[in-house]
């Protein structure tokens, strides 16, 4: 990030930004005046503009209509609202796909993804790039000196719908990427293990993306295609950014990540260095861990941003439109959700979108101004949140204060552990990490969700759930962490393969065997619904390992009571170097995970900073001298023991206190 630009909200300590995607092209001109009036009432400071405006800005090839956008920019500026201006390239207009159908993506079955939705473009299409980058240049030239412009918003949610494209353009680009990675076809054959099933390649041109095949496509081919697909979108982000930096070197550039739910195609830990500030979009999923997952994503986003403040670019005031059943938010959730992001380092709270649409696929998606208009409870809640954010201006610019414990999160392990032809299809990488996170929250122990590539310095306890892909450098870092006094907890299916998805031989988990003091000859996954009993009344699901201790000093914390490996160790801990290395060989039920984690954290010296009566009931985060206390329950809580000015915390409320 040598020539990166620090955005205003990272340098001045002025205010938390508040706003939304603003799509004025969906509304008649007279609504715009009402929009800015209501924005001022709500305390809106910033909007993201022109995200889906390509067809309006460039109605025909090379013909531009900027009059309306000039007017919107001026109107916003006159009302003190800044603009995070999109490059408008997210969705190509019909004239372009009609003239150049070769920009349309192709799925793995060879079907074309047609126009009529959005994001129907191939990241590798030279024709798409030519048209899109011309628009970026035109936008940057037009608005370089506009006083409302404070940031550039590259495209929109890169990879939301077009992460995997199997077209001819993709095939060609994949070959270029592979040449760069491997140098020679021989090296690729070795890395892909093509001695298997007569897959040996003689020439680069024989290589394809993993299109629909008669049986399982080569696993390393699949793994590399995932890496490649993340890389080509990152490369596209760079291409737009370079034009913006050339024409507007003082305007910071971002693009909205999707650290949320099961969105896994883009390796954001790897993308973060490409933007001047990290932004994220988050939408809650229904279910018992809904709020925990929000917190997990915000936590990970903050750590991808290296602890620096980040920008919440989108979330929802209430329901979305794209889940099977779209729940409305309950009273208090609008504010609680927003402030939970702030608690994890967000310096901006923005929504999709400002005014709920009247037409189109998102007309049932909530906005800051609902169909009912500003005379509505939702808009009153929006105004109240704006006031709260103004009161919290002093939080702006404050970094996350690291925890003593970390959960490692690794996109490559996510990709590789869930590929086909594995011991079980039931394994869910993100769910395992989230279950550990929920347990930390239940114990009231602060934890950071950390990219596996980040430094472990300063952490006393590191949990590695399903850290499946283990290049030797990562194993060395984990070993050094333990040697130097760190406490590591690894779970089942960790340390199984190297960076080429080749098994580490000699017993699992190859590069961690000595550190853990054990050796696994075989694993036995469990059928859905089956459980395995452990000592102390604990229970496991999903997985079991046949463990032999290779260091007699390895402590057995729990043994299998039932199942194929009855009588053998299930959970172990080995004192190593100045620290320890523990292993959990099954998916522990929540009532088993909590006592185990409490014990392991305690032995690592990691304790709750909350009074016992609040543990599990609130989440605590810290930003440089400011404590955020999020009520995880639906009841009012007595928080007098925290020493703040208010003795109680409302149901779903968030208290902000001096540390
Ligand atoms: C994404 C997109 C928005 C909108 C929302 C709806 O985040 O970026 O344009 O479609 O989803 O939840
Ligand atoms: C079949 C095939 C083998 C192998 C096994 C795996 O029998 O002939 O090559 O793939 O299945 O079970």
Automatic annotation (TrEMBL):
<dbReference type="InterPro" id="IPR003476">
    <property type="entry name" value="Glyco_hydro_42"/>
</dbReference>
<feature type="binding site">
    <location>
        <position position="322"/>
    </location>
    <ligand>
        <name>substrate</name>
    </ligand>
</feature>
<dbReference type="InterPro" id="IPR013529">
    <property type="entry name" value="Glyco_hydro_42_N"/>
</dbReference>
<feature type="binding site">
    <location>
        <position position="118"/>
    </location>
    <ligand>
        <name>substrate</name>
    </ligand>
</feature>
<dbReference type="GO" id="GO:0004565">
    <property type="term" value="F:beta-galactosidase activity"/>
</dbReference>
<dbReference type="Pfam" id="PF08532">
    <property type="entry name" value="Glyco_hydro_42M"/>
</dbReference>
<dbReference type="InterPro" id="IPR017853">
    <property type="entry name" value="GH"/>
</dbReference>
<keyword id="KW-0326">Glycosidase</keyword>
<feature type="active site" description="Nucleophile">
    <location>
        <position position="314"/>
    </location>
</feature>
<dbReference type="Pfam" id="PF02449">
    <property type="entry name" value="Glyco_hydro_42"/>
</dbReference>
<feature type="domain" description="Glycoside hydrolase family 42 N-terminal">
    <location>
        <begin position="21"/>
        <end position="391"/>
    </location>
</feature>
<dbReference type="InterPro" id="IPR013738">
    <property type="entry name" value="Beta_galactosidase_Trimer"/>
</dbReference>
<keyword id="KW-0378">Hydrolase</keyword>
<dbReference type="InterPro" id="IPR029062">
    <property type="entry name" value="Class_I_gatase-like"/>
</dbReference>
<protein>
    <recommendedName>
        <fullName>Beta-galactosidase</fullName>
        <ecNumber>3.2.1.23</ecNumber>
    </recommendedName>
</protein>
<feature type="active site" description="Proton donor">
    <location>
        <position position="157"/>
    </location>
</feature>
<feature type="domain" description="Beta-galactosidase trimerisation">
    <location>
        <begin position="403"/>
        <end position="606"/>
    </location>
</feature>
<dbReference type="GO" id="GO:0009341">
    <property type="term" value="C:beta-galactosidase complex"/>
</dbReference>
<comment type="similarity">
    <text>Belongs to the glycosyl hydrolase 42 family.</text>
</comment>
<feature type="binding site">
    <location>
        <position position="156"/>
    </location>
    <ligand>
        <name>substrate</name>
    </ligand>
</feature>
<dbReference type="GO" id="GO:0005975">
    <property type="term" value="P:carbohydrate metabolic process"/>
</dbReference>
């Amino acid at each position: 990030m040598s020539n990166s630009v620090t955005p205003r909200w990272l340098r001045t300590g002025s205010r938390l930004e508040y706003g939304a995607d603003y799509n004025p092209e969906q509304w008649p001109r007279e609504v715009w005046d009402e929009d800015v009036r209501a924005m001022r009432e709500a305390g809106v400071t910033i909007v993201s503009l022109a995200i889906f405006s390509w067809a309006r800005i460039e109605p025909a090839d090379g013909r531009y209509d900027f009059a309306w956008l000039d007017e919107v920019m001026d109107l916003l500026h006159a009302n003190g609202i800044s603009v995070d201006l999109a490059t408008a390239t997210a969705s190509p207009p019909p004239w372009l796909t009609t003239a150049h159908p070769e920009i349309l993506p192709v799925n793995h079955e060879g079907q074309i993804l047609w126009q009529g939705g959005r994001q129907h473009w191939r990241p590798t299409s030279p024709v798409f790039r030519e048209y899109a980058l011309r628009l970026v240049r035109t936008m940057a030239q037009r608005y370089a000196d506009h006083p409302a412009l404070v940031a550039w918003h590259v495209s929109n949610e890169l990879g939301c719908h077009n992460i995997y494209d199997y077209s001819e353009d993709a095939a060609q680009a994949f070959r270029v990427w592979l040449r760069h990675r491997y140098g020679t076809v021989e090296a690729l054959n070795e890395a892909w293990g093509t001695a298997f099933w007569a897959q040996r390649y003689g020439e680069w041109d024989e290589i394809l993306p993993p299109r629909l095949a008669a049986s399982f496509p080569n696993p390393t081919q699949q793994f590399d295609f995932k890496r490649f697909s993340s890389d080509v979108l990152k490369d596209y982000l760079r291409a737009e950014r370079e034009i913006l930096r050339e024409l507007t070197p003082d305007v910071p550039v971002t693009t909205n990540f999707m650290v949320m739910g099961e969105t896994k195609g883009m390796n954001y830990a790897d993308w973060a260095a490409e933007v001047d500030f990290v932004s994220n979009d988050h939408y809650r999923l229904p279910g018992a861990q809904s709020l925990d997952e929000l917190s997990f994503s915000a936590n990970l986003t903050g750590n991808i941003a290296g602890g620096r403040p980040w920008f919440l670019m989108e979330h929802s005031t209430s329901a979305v439109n794209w889940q099977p059943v779209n729940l409305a938010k309950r009273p208090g959730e609008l504010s609680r959700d927003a402030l939970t992001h702030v608690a994890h380092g967000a310096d901006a709270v923005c929504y999709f979108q400002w005014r709920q649409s009247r037409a189109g696929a998102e007309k049932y998606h909530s906005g800051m101004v609902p169909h009912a208009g500003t005379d509505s409870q939702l808009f009153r809640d929006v105004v109240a949140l704006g006031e709260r954010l103004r009161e919290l201006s002093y939080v702006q610019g404050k970094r996350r204060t690291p925890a003593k414990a970390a959960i490692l999160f690794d996109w490559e392990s996510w990709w590789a552990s869930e590929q086909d032809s594995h011991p079980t299809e039931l394994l869910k990488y993100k769910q395992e990490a989230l279950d550990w996170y929920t347990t930390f929250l239940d114990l009231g122990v602060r934890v950071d969700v950390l990219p596996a590539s980040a430094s472990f310095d300063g952490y006393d306890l590191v949990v590695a759930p399903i850290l499946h892909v283990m290049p030797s450098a990562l194993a060395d870092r984990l070993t050094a962490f333990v040697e130097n006094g760190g406490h590591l907890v690894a779970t089942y299916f960790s340390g199984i393969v190297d960076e080429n998805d080749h098994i580490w031989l000699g017993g699992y988990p190859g590069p961690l065997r000595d550190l853990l003091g054990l050796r696994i000859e075989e694993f036995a996954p469990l059928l859905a619904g089956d459980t395995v009993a452990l000592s102390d009344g604990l229970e496991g699901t999903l997985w079991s390992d046949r463990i032999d201790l290779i260091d007699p000093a390895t402590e057995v914390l729990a043994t299998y009571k039932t199942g194929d490996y009855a009588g053998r160790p299930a959970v172990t801990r080995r004192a190593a170097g100045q620290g320890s290395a523990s292993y959990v060989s099954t998916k522990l039920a929540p009532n088993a995970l909590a006592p185990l984690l409490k014990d392991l954290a305690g032995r690592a010296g990691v304790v709750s900073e909350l009074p016992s009566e609040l543990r599990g009931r609130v989440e605590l985060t810290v930003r440089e001298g400011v404590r955020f206390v999020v009520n995880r329950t639906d009841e009012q809580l007595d928080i007098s023991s925290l020493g703040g000015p208010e003795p109680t915390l409302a149901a779903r409320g968030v208290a902000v206190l001096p540390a």
